[in-house]
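#struct-help
A.M.: can someone run this one for me? Single chain, 393 residues.
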Amino acid sequence: MNAATARSARLILLSLFVTALGNSAMIPFMAYFIMQELHMSALHVTGYSIAASLLTMLCNRVVGERIDRGSRIFSFVAVGNLGLMAASLAVLVAPTYCVVVLAAAPCLALAGAGISAVYILGRLFAERNGLDVQRYNAKVRTMVSTGWMFGPALSYLIAARGGSFYVFLFVLGLSCVALATTIASLPRDFRSDRREPRSATESAGWFDNRPLWLAAIACFLFNVAHVLCASALPLFYIREAHLPVYAPGLSLTFKCLAEVVAIMGSPYVTDRIGRRNALYLAAVAGMAAFAVLHEATSLPLMALGALMEGAYFGLFAGVAVSFMQGFARGRIGRATSLYMNSLFLGSLTASTMTGLIATAFSFQAAIATAGIAMTAALAMLFLTRRADAEAES
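D.P.: on it. Structure tokens below:
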């Protein structure tokens, strides 16, 4: 790899980190802002979350299809940066629920699609420049995870010190930096191989790739399991396990550290056992983590469970996008957008399930249900085994 290629590879990662940091500083904060600052109910938060998630999935699909047909990837990343800028500016100017739903949600959907576009850019860049695709995808995923490690913490720290106004001002500043970084670092004319627009005879093309859809369902179930457990843990620790108030934060720190290490180590795992077996390992490790967390009534057990949780999810995160892209059949944009949408839909589904299960039974029961979802994910992975040669390409 020559010096110019190495520099471009690093700049793409830098652009992604800054973009992810801005997104993560605003997106999770919106629920708090709606309830605490706008004094709306949890139902209003649910309405906003559903609208934002559906819009993001729609944008991801459109972006993926357009990239597969030869559109410039740079344009979608830049529009995503502008979307984050517009969302933060709209809430700064008019902090009302209507503005949040009608302006901020669509703009944040564009910002989310911009992240998806960088995933696609990373894969194509690695292929064309002779980089190890699995290792570069792992670095791409690490940048996203690292951004999400710091973004929410920074936004809540700023909110505690100065209020929501300064949070959105901070996000606005980050979006400007992200746009400047995108302009300075991303190749302007980078495209996928051009394809002709789909003809009428190809109308079923979106659904004719069975292994890709089975892999997407597996990723969906993985994320259902992950979010079921992650969203139930804070209240389980405090209300049911009677651990100290700082326990959820300490658990999240252990989890994030293990997750980043596991993502960076995932290429070495796949080199030895392959992508599918790595995902099998992640699923089994996830079930073991849920078993430990289900019984985590002490700080040492909580720490062990958090490390196991971060390890299994980091391995999944480091491998899953490459696994799905292996079924792309020339449509990397479609495969990547479907991967991103499977995660969004899994989060939306699991968030709803957590509340229902906790209301009917307990937060501990929600953690147990995560194990069932992980078993289903393992079964879906098994169904794609006949396409191994394609997935490993």
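A.M.: thanks! The longest helix spans residues 97-128.
D.P.: also worth noting: The chain has two domains: 3-191, 208-391.
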